[in-house]
Amino acid sequence: xxxxxxxxxxxxxxxxxxxxxxxxxxxxxxxxxxxxxxxxxxxxxxxxxxxxxxxxxxxxxxxxxxxxxxxxxxxxxxxxxxxxxxxxxxxxxxxxxxxxxxxxxxxxxxxxxxxxxxxxxxxxxxxxxxxxxxxxxxxxxxxxxxxxxxxxxxxxxxxxxxxxxxxxxxxxxxxxxxxxxxxxxxxxxxxxxxxxxxxxxxxxx
Length: 205
Known about the structure:
CATH architecture of the domain at 83-191: 2-Layer Sandwich
Strand order of the largest sheet: 1-2-5-4-3
Number of strands: 5
Organism: Gluconacetobacter azotocaptans
Largest sheet: 5 strands, mixed
Keywords: Cytoplasm, Repressor, Translation regulation
Region (Disordered): 21-52
CATH class of the domain at 83-191: Alpha Beta
Order of helices and strands: HHHHEEHEEEHH
GO molecular function: ribosomal large subunit binding
CATH topology of the domain at 83-191: Beta Polymerase, domain 2
Radius of gyration: 32 Å
CATH superfamily of the domain at 83-191: Beta Polymerase, domain 2
Family: Belongs to the Iojap/RsfS family.
Number of helices: 7
């Protein structure tokens, strides 16, 4: 029979012989709730646009605990386990020489002894390109491994503008110039910030 006749028969609730009508049941309740998108209004759109512009002008915060500690700035003096000075100087010399060989720019070494809980020395250097920074980090890791320092961790070595090398008592920060100026680790951890203004108590008894 034609489709028109079939629809007319079903509409009269009298399907023709040999035809079975299957009624669609609503889907069973699975206990989940569907979220519907909120309606867009002119006020909401304006608020959202303002929020995006604010976030776009804000620098990204570092994600790892080590990087967060690095930008936290000097705090109260902390006690660390004593480190063998000769060994520390040996590792530090390897790091700085490796950076110089790889054309690292503006290499700075900061003494964090008694001031930071995560390291005794911080080395900061600048690279001009992702590839150069990655090579600098790889060479430091290899050279420290050759002298027996096996536990060297690298964060952000895949095209990041900030690569951190955790060599235990020494941390190395390799930046692109813009990122180095943005985070300003030398300003945060420089010795000048530990000098209290004249007449200000230091909190000690």
